[in-house]
What we know:
It is a single chain. The protein is mainly β. It has one domain. It has helices spanning 6-13, 58-62, and strands at 15-20, 32-40, 43-55, 72-80. A four-stranded antiparallel sheet has the order 1-2-3-4, covered by helices on one side. A hairpin with a 2-residue loop joins strand 2 (32-40) and strand 3 (43-55). It is globular. The chain starts with 5 loop residues before the first helix and ends in a 13-residue tail after the last strand. Residues 1-22 are annotated as: Disordered.
Amino acid sequence: MSNFTKQDLERESQSELGQGHMCTNNIHPHHLKIYRIKKIDGKAQQHWELFSLWLATAEDVANGDAEREDEVLNLSSIEIEFCPFCGTQLSQS
């Protein structure tokens, strides 16, 4: 399993992340992560985002789709107010 950390996600997303929402209903916790955003490119923020993170596997490397395991293949995010897995409204304060 990947050793991709919160700090790695901050570097890749160019964001400073705050509190995370670790939902037990999330069946893909290594790929889908929810964090409160504190800063983006140094600018203060105060919202939550759902990150979709896909890292290369040994198979991706063997197929020539990546140079090394755990290389970021895709990273995207979307601003959210509610957890898409359990429906909890995420704190705005």
